[in-house]
Amino acid sequence: MSGRCNPATGVVLLGVIALSGLAACERQPDPSADGGLLGSPGDWPSFGRTAGEQHYSPLDQIDRDTVERLSVAWYHDLAPGNTVTAPVAAGGKLFVTTGHSRVRAFEAATGELLWEHDSGTRERAGFILRFGYGPKGLAYWNDRVFIATHDGHVVALDADSGEPLWEQTTTEPKDGRYVNGPPRVFDGKVLIGHGGADSGPVRGYLDAFDALTGDRLWRFYTVPGNPADGFESEAMEKAAATWSGEWWRLGGGGTVWNAISYDPELDYLFLGTGNGYPYNHLLRSAGEGDNLFLCAIVAVEADTGAYVWHYQTNPAEQTDYNAAMDMTLATLVIEGRQRRVLMQAPKNGFFYVIDRVSGELISAEPHARVTWATHVDPETGRPVEAPGYRYHGRGLFELWPSVTGAHSWLPQSFSPRTGLVYIPAIERASTIGDEGLDLSSPDAGAGVVGDFNLEIEGARRSFLRAWDPVRQTERWSVELPGDWPAGTMATAGDLVFQGRLDGKFVAYDASSGEAVWTHDVGVPIIAPPISFAVDGTQYVTVLTGAGASGSGLFAPASDGYRVDYRMPRRVLTFALDGAATLPASPPPPPMVAPDDPGYVPDAALEAQGAQQFAVAACFVCHGQNAANSGAAPDLRLSPYPTDRDAFHAVVREGALLSRGMPRFDELSIEQTEAIRQYVRARARELGADGASAR
Ligand code: HEC
Predict the structure, then answer these.
(1) Those residues with Cβ within 8 angstroms of residue 5's Cβ, 6 or more apart along the chain or in another chain
(2) Residue 571 CA, ligand 1 centroid: distance in Å
(3) Is pTM beyond 0.70 here?
(4) What is the chain's alpha carbon radius of gyration, rounded to the nearest angstrom?
(5) Kind of pairing, strands 473-480 and 488-491?
(6) Catalytic residue selected from 207, 290, 320, 634
(7) How confident is the model at residue 8 (pLDDT cuts 50, 70, 90)?
(8) 316 lines ligand 1 (CB under 6 A)
(9) CA distances (Å), 13 to each of 191, 331, 468, in order?
(10) Is 268:153 a contact under the CB 8 Å cutoff?
(11) Please, which pLDDT band fits residue 285 given cuts at 50, 70 and 90?
């Protein structure tokens, strides 16, 4: 189906009018049809529910009046491993992926487990396993469930049995790419990108597979390769004119690691692209050119993958900013005109409203503190950069938002009823620069130095912001605990649902921001919620537990919250008058290191170990300074470092591989001993009373 004449247009978002196919085809584009239909109003078959990724449910049984009766209908306990994922629901079933793509299907109304599928990623992925946990969601289409594993396997499962129907790969083993965004199925195509451009030379692309057969239909590269090899398309040839030096040797970056949306009437797919690799523009492109299509929103034809238009949020990107955040489609009345818009709050702190037919910028205003630009020029659509932002050889620049962004992959939501966008917003700051680095050295890496999570006034905060995209102003905002806000969902019951690091799951009045319902689960909720209906009952489902891909990087954010690896992780489903009772949660383990009589301080060995801990990227899962974030056990509390053989068996020989601990067989015995020394020293810093000295 091309989607140009989508028979179901208008049904989902209005939620009430059932149109016949023909009638819909004859209609003018309906303003509420943005992003088109994917199933019935009671389904949530895709990451953002519709192709327009509004994260909005047209169900309204749970509203401001009834929400006080909302309680747990059923729950299912989950093993440790990534529970920061969004489920999908369709046809009375709920599908959940956790860990490294372990899929479970439930009877959505009762929680009865129907089938399970383990993708086998842990045993197969090799060094890709080191990059965290992988995909944040899955997709449903036509009685099939689609997953894309961390190591690039794209799999269609039978929704009734869980049996694989076809399997493809989107990445090559050892190519440094790993999948971490949810696959989308739009227009009968499975669409999948990947990440990897933060840690090595990766050239980004998006693959489209036929959802029925698994055939690969097309691949859209986001940055040009070596001109000597010829260009894949005219778009790549034009893009190459915006690069300099020998960028292809360094990969370029521009990965589509998170968001994709789709307009069925235009038949355009929208891709959000990531940062450049290396980050430093001098190193990547000899300091010249805009470097298309880095840090950009690109529209391509769904049938062919051919380029249509692009809008670049950060020309010549060099601070790990990227435009890979959700692209919400809606119809807004702006200055008296109906505009079919795409709205994005990328990392860089501005909120962009773009005409999705033409790619023209309508408006861009900061929703968070911004120091890198004074404003976006409405004539040219380009940011006007602040002095000092081009940091080359000038010392460190104080960058707001930080390199982790004012908004990350945690989805925003949009309510067509209030006209507001609900942004999980982050206020963080970094320093960044390249002073003292030898950019000509092969060890220059990303080509930047700095402190990426500054502890200064106003930083390390987070908010739920209700943003008026027409006036480009904040309507209301709520400060949240910590600086890593959860994904959001808006509903036709005029509620906004969002979890919090302190364990509370909250429903806010969508118009005023007043918290109208709170349920305390005792462990962080980062995952975005969904809502669906079965037999006339509306349900809300969310997964509990912290610790997703790379969440060790964000360990400081979870400081003070419950993030022990074996915290209760669950699928939690709520309904009005739900009658389930959650068992009491076991308390977190005391922050006390095990006895370690053989420990002898050795500052030199410990310093070597600190370096190895960083180089081998143990911190990606085990946390900065070995302080845990929920993605892996807290090594300071672990008995393994006190036992030489056991430690080596786990780290170098992969004894816990099948549970998600990668094998580091390149580490020498000496290097592993240095890491062991470092971890034991961190453990000694824990106070005897159990208080953390971090
Ligand atoms: C991609 C994430 C990831 C990375 C990177 C990683 N680990 Fe782990 N590690 C885990 C997980 C998950 C477990 C827990 C497995 C289980 O459930 O038993 C674990 C367990 C361990 C354990 C056993 C702890 C215990 O008490 O059970 C040790 C020791 C360990 N890791 C050391 C390291 C070292 C040293 C590095 C760096 C060289 C490292 N890990 C890198 C994910 C990771």
Answers:
(1) 24, 25
(2) 24
(3) yes
(4) 24
(5) unpaired
(6) 320
(7) very low
(8) no
(9) 23, 12, 19
(10) no
(11) very high
Residues 675-684: what's their mean pLDDT? 97
Quick check: is 535 catalytic? no
Name the residue with the closest Cα to ligand 1, atom 43.
661
What domains lie within the chain, and their CATH numbers?
Answer: 56-576 (2.140.10.10), 603-684 (1.10.760.10)
Residue 566 identity: R
Q: Is the peptide bond before 293 cis (omega within 30 degrees of 0)?
A: yes
Least confident of 136-140, 235-239, 442-446, 573-577: 442-446
Helices assigned H by DSSP within 273-325 = 281-285
Residue 494 Ramachandran class (φ > 0 left, ψ -120 to 50 alpha, else beta): left
Question: Is 678's C-beta closer than 6 angstroms to any atom of ligand 1?
Answer: no
Residue 65 pLDDT class (50, 70, 90 cuts): very high
Does 99 sit in the ligand 1 pocket, CB within 6 Å?
no
Smallest CA-to-CA distance from 659 within 632, 637, 625, 685 is with: 632
On the question of pLDDT at 452 being above 60, the answer is yes
Query: CA–CA separation, 663 vs 652, rounded Å?
Result: 6
Please tell me the chain's helix, strand, coil percentages from 3-state DSSP, rounded to the nearest 5. Answer: 15, 30, 55
Separation in Å, CA 532 to CA 77, 134, 421? 21, 25, 21
For residue 631, give the ligand 1 atom closest to its CA.
12
Burial 600-634 (b: 16+ CB within 10 A, else e): eeeeebbebbbebbeebbbbbbbbbebbbbbbbbb
Tokens of 218: 């097309």
Quick: pLDDT tens for 352-383: 999 999 999 999 999 999 999 999 999 999 99
Any atom of ligand 1 within 6 Å of the Cβ of 651: yes
Q: What percent of the chain has pLDDT over 90?
A: 84
Measured from the CB, is residue 617 less than 6 Å from ligand 1?
yes
Stretch (H or E) spanning 220: strand 216-221
Per residue in 542-559, pLDDT (tens digit) is 999 998 766 677 777 777
Please give the Cα distance from 273 to 207 (Å, whole number): 14
Q: State residue 205 phi and psi, 5-degree precision.
A: -155, 170
- Residues 130/108, Cβ–Cβ less than 8 Å: no
Cα 222 → chain centroid: 19
